Amino acid sequence: MADKKMVDYKGLKVVVTGGGGYFGCKLGRALRDKGADVILFDLKKPEKMEDLTFYKGSVCEKNDLETVFQGATFVFHSASYGMSGREQLNKDLIEQVNIQGTKNILEACYTHSVPYLVYTSTYNVVFGHDEIINGNESLPYLPMDQHTDHYSRTKSIAEQVVLSSNQSPLKDGNVLKTTALRPNGIYGEGEQRHLPRIVSYIERGLFAFTYGTKDNKVDFVHVDNLVHAHVMAGLALTGPNHTAAGQAYFISDGRPVNNFEFFRPLVEGLGYKFPTINIPLKIVYFIAFITEIIHSVVGKYIYNFQPILTRTEVHKTGVTHYFSINKARHEIGYSPIKYDLQGVVSYFKERGHDRKALNKHSSVSPILVNVAIAIIFTLVMLSWIRISS
Known about the structure:
Layout: E1 13-17, H1 22-33, E2 37-42, E3 53-56, H2 62-69, E4 74-77, H3 91-112, E5 116-120, E6 132-135, H4 150-164, E7 177-183, E8 186-187, H5 195-203, E9 209-211, E10 221-222, H6 223-236, E11 247-251, H7 259-262, H8 264-269, E12 277-279, H9 281-301, H10 311-318, E13 321-323, H11 326-332, H12 342-350, H13 366-388
């Protein structure tokens, strides 16, 4: 039975998977401010709960979803695994969370008649290594064998499962409405996945060069804009037209910029010099490829080190790919606000990351560890070749 008018969130039960994370918790607060009865669902409790309800559980465990989905009207599925760093190399867990976890979410929606599902996807469902300039949602999914990482591959599979589930019958006789949002490069004060890693590289001298052409551009999205997009997408699933149902949307600040220039205010704001050396993209990609090979052996049996870059990260930061947000503007009412990195700079300076305030007695640089591992690995392989011959 179709809705006669667009609903709001007031008084409705809303579940946010991945709610213990930076974005999920922010989304939960925004939905609470709209009057929703919000439940954050995750393995780890967020630091600042305020008056939100938290339920500990995993999307991989069907039983964990049973209680939390009962009586829910909206589900915002943002839980995922394997986006960056060494997490990208744990294929088994990536598949369990991103594919099977999403299927479990859909099954719980069917069983408990949850009518609206908003899925947090990624640019990488269409982007691999070729330039995309002002792309739009008509672009086809990237062929599975062209993905250089398992995270992107599994997110693509999961998005397709979610969108193909639109209009699926629910237990109460109604149908499920689904939509997918595709963000890229989330930033903001307090972001814990990417920015602390970048600041660590800056402090340890690893942010010493750029790569790719100086005119390459990528998209970023401030967390508050991404939250706004999700709130609007949920509403656009309701009403007589169900505008967002079965649709995917690219979400960004709408201001493509060179990846390294984007971080210039952060580098210089913390008191460091912006790098002047530029290295060809192919060389950096080859180094990342070798690092992944080394990690597949050393990381599993000896030392699970943090790769400086993976192949996917090289493409995401060094190859032009940005997308139009016109569809999101027109269909779900997405209207991004202009942000910069000054708030992020202040956030890190307040926590002692100003160069002048840093203790000079730092630990051994990760780059030295990676180099040492590479040398040891090479010597072992050469020794094995000599013995075999």
